[in-house]
Amino acid sequence: MHHRHRRVLILLLFFYLPAQAAELLPFTSDGCSMFPNGSIQQQDLWLDCCRAHDAAYWAGGTLDQRNSADQALRSCVASKGENTLSWLMLAGVNLGGSPFWPTTFRWGYGWPYSRGYQALSSTEIRDIKEGWPKDVPLPTYLQQALKQMPKMP
Fold first, then answer.
1. What is the Cα–Cα distance from 118 to 95, expressed in whole angstroms?
2. CA 87 to CA 10: how far, in whole Å?
């Protein structure tokens, strides 16, 4: 293999292989990231929707779980009477939330960069539950995963 190709391959592997045995950072939320948290009249109208979305993005997981989190955000904002805006927000998170962007609001931002779309292990799910914000309900997929896990002694 040519030396230049070997370097490119090593760089690709570094950026696209999932991280192993990484530590979960404490949960943080910036509200609706680069979007208002509500309307002019009700400035925090959909902030709870964004915090729930942030918690799911912090935890990360598979592409299906990300799509579920994005649809939950859209549904939540629409339930506040903002259907058109909910579709705009869905488009924004679809573009800006990729785990491959080195941002503080990417999918799986609680884990080190380069994790990508990776299923959560039992240990990781326990860590997520411990760090989950108390004012945000656990998403269905995490509730189901916790029920299926053996109880710790």
1. 19
2. 39
Q: Which residue has the tokens 């990781």?
A: 124
| DSSP one-letter string for 57-73 | HHH---HHHHHHHHHHH
Where helices occur in 2-152 by DSSP H, the ranges are 3-16, 47-59, 63-79, 83-96, 122-131, 140-148
- pLDDT of 8 reads 46
pTM of the model: 0.83
To the nearest 10 degrees (0 to 180), the angle between helices 83-96 and 63-79 is 150
Distance CA 5, CA 50 (A): 43
Q: Rounded to whole angstroms, how far apart are CA atoms 38 and 46?
A: 5
Q: How confident is the model at residue 87 (pLDDT cuts 50, 70, 90)?
A: very high
